[in-house]
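Category: protein sequence paired with discrete backbone structure
Discipline: computational structural biology
Format: plain text, a pair of labelled lines
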Amino acid sequence: MVRISAYCVMLPSCREMDVTSGALFLAVFLACAVEAVEALTIVLAAGTAREWRSAGFGVGAALVVLAAVVAVLGPALSVIPLTGLRLFVGGLLLVFGLQWLRKAVLRASGHKALHDEAAIFQTELAAARSAGARRRGLVGDWYAFTLAFKGVLLEGLEVAFIAVTFGTNQHDVPLAALAALLAIVLVAGAGFAVHAPLARVPENTLKFVVGVMLTSFGIFWGSEGAGAHWPGADAALLVVVPAVAVFAIGLVFVMRGVRGPVTAPATVQAEVGES
């Protein structure tokens, strides 16, 4: 995951860098994997129910837009002073992380229905099959194009934001990009190999873990940006991450005793595109 030499192990600064780089890679990989699963579900529905060529055009168009966003976002973040960047990124990650963690706690405690990619796939499939066909230029099926474009663009924006902000903040964009690319390739390859959504992936558990990681990094970087100094520097993440995880798990047990679990599943449509 992280290249270190025997000599580097002897240096405290290198050990701190190893901790941060490992956590960076894991957080980006898991978050991007979750987003990739959701985008894959929509693309598979568009291609299976409608037309694969048009769905492919939609994916390609979304990737072009995402590349432009990354090209603009990366240099823009790099000109921000490190302290200001960490305060800005930490605040945004804290917002994202708490949102993910809130939903994960609600699902784990039974107050919100679990995310079901198989049910979402069937819903998207039925909606795609019932829509009328319409051709626009080279795109033979405009519905398949727009469905795939929307799915990849919306989920891809979160992937781009997480990878660019994490990488820029830690001055290791290549590592963050590698984690994101590896997650996308693995999910896409597995999904298209079986030609079905990855319903067996423990997505609800992954979202819980990602929520913990994003929240922890948000607390850590936001505090540094505000002028705080963590004991042990980056090694403090070894305490922050477990502390957030324990707190979230504690909330799950507390909320399970508040009232009975949800018996009726939430509407599938409400889950589409939701983290």
Q: What stands out?
A: Confidence is low (pLDDT under 50) at residues 1-17, 261-273. The chain is about 75% helix and 0% strand. The chain has one domain: 23-261.
